[in-house]
Amino acid sequence: GRIIGSTSFGNYSEKDQRIEIGWTWLGKDFQGNGYNFQAKVLLLNYCFKTLALERVEAKTDVLNRAARNSLLKSGFVEEGILRSHTLLTNNRRRDTIYYSILKAEYFQ
């Protein structure tokens, strides 16, 4: 019964039938073991089957290679980069890369 990490929903738009998955963290001991992938599958099933959404979005720092690989492994499609998108606490300007997956792609 340990908490190994967290991931959340955000930026929900009922009208547009879309939601964002993100704000994910995983304890060091649990990284690279497939837990994030399993969580994303459960969340995507919930989004598309229960909520009947058409689109699920995700974004991350362009430098976060692990998160980017995980999103691709989960079936997300890279959409583009917003340059100098976010000012981080260390005063670095983050380039943010966006991903999405559509219901039609998920249930191929």
TrEMBL record:
Record-annotated N-acetyltransferase domain positions:
1-104
Record field: transmembrane? none
For this UniProt record, give its keywords in alphabetical order, as a comma-separated list.
Transferase
Q: Which terms does the record give in the GO molecular function aspect?
A: acyltransferase activity, transferring groups other than amino-acyl groups
So which domain of life are we looking at? Bacteria
Work out whether the entry's keyword set contains Transferase. Answer: yes
PROSITE patterns attached to this UniProt entry? GNAT
Decide whether keyword Lyase is in the record.
Answer: no
The protein in question is named GNAT family N-acetyltransferase
Organism of derivation: Zunongwangia profunda
